[in-house]
Protein 1
Amino acid sequence: MNNSNNVDNYISDEIHEECGVFGIYDLDGNDVASSIYYGLFALQHRGQESCGIAVSDTNGPKGSVKSCKGMGLVNEVFTPESLEELKGNIGVGHVRYSTAGASNRENTQPLVLNYVKGTLGLAHNGNLINVLELKDQLAYTGAIFQTTIDSEVIAYLIARERLQTGSVEEAVGKAMLKLKGAYSLVIMSPRKLIGARDPFGFRPLCIGKRDNTYVLASESSALDAVDAEFVRDVLPGEVVMINKDGIHSDMSMAQPKISKCIFEYIYFARPDSCLDTVSVYNSRIMAGRILAQTYPVEADLVVGVPDSGNAAAMGYSFESGIQYATAFVKNSYVGRTFIKPKQSMRESSVRIKLNVLKDVVKGKRVIMIDDSIVRGTTCERIVRMLKNAGATEVHVRISSPPFLYPCYFGTDVPSDDQLIAHNNTVEQIRDMIGADSLGYLSVDRLSELIKGDTGYCDACFSGNYPIEPPKDDIRGEYER
Ligand code: SF4
């Protein structure tokens, strides 16, 4: 993993989602590049290192795909001119943060693969845990890889299976039998748009419709951005094929054990998204309510650390009756081109992104809600900022359970030696971050965030991995 250009990495210890995907098919033949651009813009929070768009004309010659990809944010990579050149009525788009594979231009997506049956454009969110085995098998039968991302292995498998099957959607289903891990895919073939979700459903994917145009997106907020109506979620284990006759579903890969990532609700997804019929905003409100029930404390104000702590803070306020306030102002304009401060300036770099409203917190006992503590460094700085601004007490409440184990399913929750909670008790962490009290959401109450549904993954908190994790931490291994 190479995060040297990611400003978040040195001003905080945030966890990152790997990617966001978007696909669209305009059956009336209108160009779709600008819709993909706006869809990716809405998914920017899922990946800020690189992005790309690939489009094709379903009425044109098979195999003619135009693409534009690059390092940086959506508004840094695309220009009105580059979008204008992307002519085509079917397309896929991707925003990326690397958890497997280096951060460089070769590894940007969508991948476009030319093979005897035509062309595939593919965008992937997730991480495979058997990628090394699959890559070896393919390499020994002649495959040559141009990237170090597992998405290329998926594209190869689909292309291979397509040679033995009657349709590309069947080939996707056959390839899925070999894949182990997390993947939500959008795939463009010359005449079809395909969406697929791994049988555990780790990463979200939904379907939308605008007039005669079908859309696939990681989150429903991206459908809103292009004025598409939410149709439904792609189900865990489902392959959907969209062509001029509408949506066709294949559920033959589905299985009873579902493991949707619970941390999507706590942190990754946008609060205005609905994932698998649950509002992300409501689940954060619920997390705050549970914290107020389990860790009540006398205080004057409840404040959230932006952005994902805000809704949970609101929930805490609703439940406790303690006044909600805005204590932080966030600068959202810190992009990739931001000049990295020297190590000696780290303290001030948190301030560049987040500042305290002194008049709000001065002389007050403050309950501060954040979504997680990873290494503890950022939390300690924010607590200190509140105290320096005059808060008399700072009580920290965390809207997730303690991170104890790494994630292998498409996020960068790091190895346990880097997780403060793996090596310290809650009381020790409280002391390290300088808080007056500290309370985490209980693992036992996570299902309440998603209306009592039990089909979720909480492995980074509980160690109960839905799929046997690799014996060694293989993340980053692929490129070696
Ligand atoms: S291990 Fe944690 S971050 Fe990874 S998929 Fe499971 S709940 Fe999500």
Protein 2
Amino acid sequence: MLLKTRVTGKLLARDLFLAYINQYFMNTNSFKTIWISDLHLGSTQCQADMLLDFLKHTESEKLYLVGDIVDFWALSRKMYWPREHNTVIQKILRKARHGTQVIYIPGNHDENVREYDNYVFGDIVVKNSDVHTTLQGKKLLIIHGDIYDTIAKHHQWIARLGSKGYDFLIEINRILRLLRKLLGLRSQFSLASFIKYKVKNVVQFISDYETNIVQTLKDEHLDGVVCGHIHHAEMKAIEQFMYINTGDFVESCTAIVEHFDGSLELIQWQMQLESEALLEAV
Ligand SMILES: [Mn+2]
């Protein structure tokens, strides 16, 4: 009920006003809700610098972490935890302490967190899945999505083997990205996603994934889904359902946001450092 009154009431005007102030004077983008997933903290794949920049320049009333936040699979192979990964966790905890409602939906790389369904850790609530109602009244299933991935569900050893091959690709991509950075090139070319889309059965895999999710939406009488898992950001209609995938902070650095009018948007994050440098120069 509270959500609905906000659409027409004075509270919305206040929210819009604060959003405006934040954007133009604080260089912060305000949203009703933010969804991010597949951060893979604890692995070399995580683009922590982009993630920190995103967390620094955005704020929301509600923040959903849609799984594969900490990559325990990678951590079990090799201990890797640079300082920036701590800073990410601290930033998220700080948001939770300062009034952002943070909801952690575990994924398959952090599946051990699923044992703590409905527990609250330092203002962050763990939920294995959730239903979010947008300001336009759409009911969205929020879930990581691995249970709809038939390979990950039934043949975990194949999935892990596949993940190693994929890790290798991403490692090459990371080196390429570093080289591009050193050379001052800013193209968003991604080797892993390039190869991924060259492989025909990956397309089939994504389509099966979507079909499985839509079946659940039908069964549960929901309007749409916000999920992650397959590292492919997208926002589209499948039949009458909204299929929304957050993407990741490994390659695409994408997020889904809900604005204060209840509309949803897929955003690809760009480093905000340039505008900051400009502000400092003034
Ligand atoms: Mn996953």
Protein 3
Amino acid sequence: MANEALDHDMLTTVDMTDVDNLYAAINQQGFGVLHNVVPDAVLTPMREYITAELDKRGGQYFGLGGQDWIGHSPLNAIFSAHGFRMVLDGLYQRAMRGEPPSPRILPVLRVLAGTHGLRHANRFHYDSYVVTALVPILIPNRPNEPRGNLVMYPNMRNVRGPALLNILEKAVVESGTACRLWRSPTVQRWLGAKPVPLEPGNIYFFWGMRSLHANEACLPTSIRSTALFHYGDPHENSVLKQLSQARARASLRRLAK
Ligand SMILES: O=C(O)CCC(=O)C(=O)O
Ligand SMILES: [Fe+2]
């Protein structure tokens, strides 16, 4: 692959001090940022990859999950970088005081475009992994157009309790009725929701399992693409967890109709 030379060559300068700073920032303001760590050498071919995929799909929303797509995409340079894994693992260990049950990172690519893209805006949810890293790839940036910020209610809950409680809470908070509340500007103001403007080149880290979050809508004529890297599921082996994931998949299938 064209980018093979880049693999393992990213994020070489991050160290434990960066991890400590990110950890403090995430706890204090909901998110932490590594600035200018994804070079154009990765972003440019990644954008070409996305436009090619969009062409195949009639210009409408698509999402890719799992280990397959990443290996064939230029973003593999980040995914396989030692420094990147070190940050994800360092954050998990600081938060949870131990190793995750599995060292796997779940990579997800989201491409919001067309009218289907709109359906995926303002869907407030918790991730089922402790640490989330967000890599913006394409962010709308024409004058006066909405940029599709990430919006979060920082650190709304704790995750070190029983799986059952966590999963029930997740189901209630993500229900249709509750979601109408979370997207209301008044509720967002009252409860201190935070817009996070995204800048390609940076990587954003937050507690996906603790912070209720969604992306704001952008124009159906624009493309907004982000890659998400999820790390560390403390309830990985729970049966309840599998039920919860089945519910999430069913909801995505409904959206696709
Ligand atoms: O694309 C974004 O800004 C957020 C996406 C997200 O939260 C997710 O896929 O879990
Ligand atoms: Fe998420």
Protein 4
Amino acid sequence: MESQKQIVDFAISQKELEELGCPVCGYAYGTWGFMGGGGVAVGCGNKSCQATFYVLGDGINVFDGCSFSHKNNKGEYIDIKPSLKPHPRRGIPAWGKREDRRPKKGGEFFTNPKESTYKHGLCFICESSCRLPVDVEWPMKRLFSISIETACVEAAKRICSMFRKAKLWTTQTGDGTQYPMKCYFVNISSCYNHRPNLLKLREVAEKEGVITDKVLRKIKALK
Ligand SMILES: [Zn+2]
Ligand SMILES: [Zn+2]
């Protein structure tokens, strides 16, 4: 028999979610679901829990004007209207949080470059919009953007400010379906002319995994 994933029929506050995590297992991450009535339905990100629970914005005690339909263990649909209750794990901090780590020798971790699906970047060198020669098909544009996944928002902000300091352009985006943001992506794009600079940057991410001010200056000076 397929195990029944737990549905928590009351709501916790956003503040307690941040401190204490999932009301069932305490895991710090999950996925936002339906949003409305002053709160949100959430799916726990712990694979062995996957509970569904409800979170209300600070100062809100009950979902306003909406209820949620769930199958009970007899297979019948029931409506629930979650109201605020104290978090069942008070006193136990959330677990599984990602650490904000930095390389010992300075710089920032800058690893695992992926093709970016973020297609509206400006060239990180000359800030011209990333237009390709007309004979290059639109999907090819991806070849001119890379995306770096960072461990936390603080790391992403620091990387972007390193680029800014070197007068280089980046875009920072978050994964909006996750709470708290699981990671932030730093996207870097290049125009056709500055593709060698971007390829060099990708190589640094692949081979060294750390970005420093010095490396950025060198990459900027390439072309
Ligand atoms: Zn859980
Ligand atoms: Zn350029």
